[in-house]
Amino acid sequence: MLKKIMNLSEAITYKQTQEICERNGAVAYPKVRLADILPIENSGISDELFKFALASHFDVIVTNREGYPLSAVEFDGVQHVQSPKQIERDKKKDALCERFDMPLLRINTEYLNDYYRQMNLLSWCIETWFALQWFSEAQENGQIPYDEPFMPTSFNHIPGYNKDFPLWLSRDALGRIAKLHEQNVIVDMSPSTIVWNDKSNNEYHSLAWVLIDENRAVLTTANIKGQNFPISMVDVVEDIALIQLYNKLVQTLDNEVSAVSPEAIDQAISDMEAKKYVLSSLAISSRPKTKS
Predict the structure, then answer these.
(1) Pairing relationship of beta strands 69-75 and 115-116 according to DSSP bridges
(2) Rounded CA gap, 284 and 17, in Å?
(3) pTM of the model
(4) What residues does the DUF2726 domain cover (predicted)?
């Protein structure tokens, strides 16, 4: 029997990428050889990497309408973290993409299975990348001031989604937290977040918390791998932490889980700071008043 060219997760990755590309004037192709994309000939790379590029493929390639490559997507199953051989292959592919400035998005099942406001993380990353391309072109054409920063949360609409601000994943959660404050259920009108970058492991870590009253609080953490892809992972890890925070806040108010003390928040911050991660984002609306 002949072999399938894609497993189920790879097929889902390709289908979703293809649908997004069609809305954005691009094309997606599955199982394209690295050597057919990367200009490895006479490039000075090692013989080992040269042979690897000849024998390996990308799960999905995104090109413009003229066929020029724009980026690649890889689905990493469990073998990508458990198999030493596969880990070594991934390192070679990453090295080649960095050498030739090829944006590479690596995803896992969490990117496919977890949905936030009609969008999973695969969709968010690719849609945000396309939004960045449009934003950069608009700046070059003088339609947007050159010093205006790119903010995914500022996009009111993108093709294919019927929600306002679709790239703002935590928008609904933040609105519901604000509503609880208006109803005098919690003292904080908005949550607080901190994001750190662990450069040694290429990971982003976020803390998010909200005070219910002076003695009770809710605290969540989230982390995500960094990417060789020109989007801000700070934005998405912060959004995930905020969404988880709202869900945990509801459970706490329903007495399904226990609240934490304000001192526990300061301790969590101290624990993160002790790891000497690089501060990437700081948005604090309230800090607990711990006892001296």
Answers:
(1) unpaired
(2) 35
(3) 0.91
(4) 3-115
